[in-house]
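pasting for the record
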Amino acid sequence: MNGQMVMVPIAVSKITDTNVKVNVPVVTGGTDKSAMKTMNEAIVKATHELMKAQGYPSSDIQEMDGTFELKTNQRGVLSLSLLNYTYSGGAHGNTLQRSLTFDAENGRSYKLGELFKPDAPYINRLNAIIEAQIKARHLPLLGDYPGITGDQDYYIADKALVIYFPLYAIVPYAWGFPYFPISVYEIEDIIDENGPLGLMLY
């Protein structure tokens, strides 16, 4: 990962079925074919996992709308979120979110724990920051804060690491996804400088 790449072009492919419309991001250039293939396969796999988690295929599905958001596409880092809203009856539908962060140069995807130096106490550091934000923002937790895991949902947006939890996981549905942005400079000492977060420092 050298940070010399600027960005990778993204196109959109569509998955359609009865009551189903899912837009899927596709990397179309900016890196070698092997890296593109690796990233696109991971994106398609995650898209289908979200669809399956929402019960697809099922005749109960009255609406399935899949979208995506590009969070970072610069310096050879691609970080994006896949969102899937499905309504199958009841008071409201359900939205699932899955984020992926890649080294666009080789297609490698990173779990949260892989963004930091080996043996760095990143879980304790991030939990302390998140708990302080929960208190400052007066978030109405459904129970005790559960803490994060090494494969916690996250994405990178500009110079921030954004940790988030699923709907219903820690706050009521009406609050949506609880997002916790953390400046890279607040955790600079434990970041792996050669990883995706490290490139956001400069």
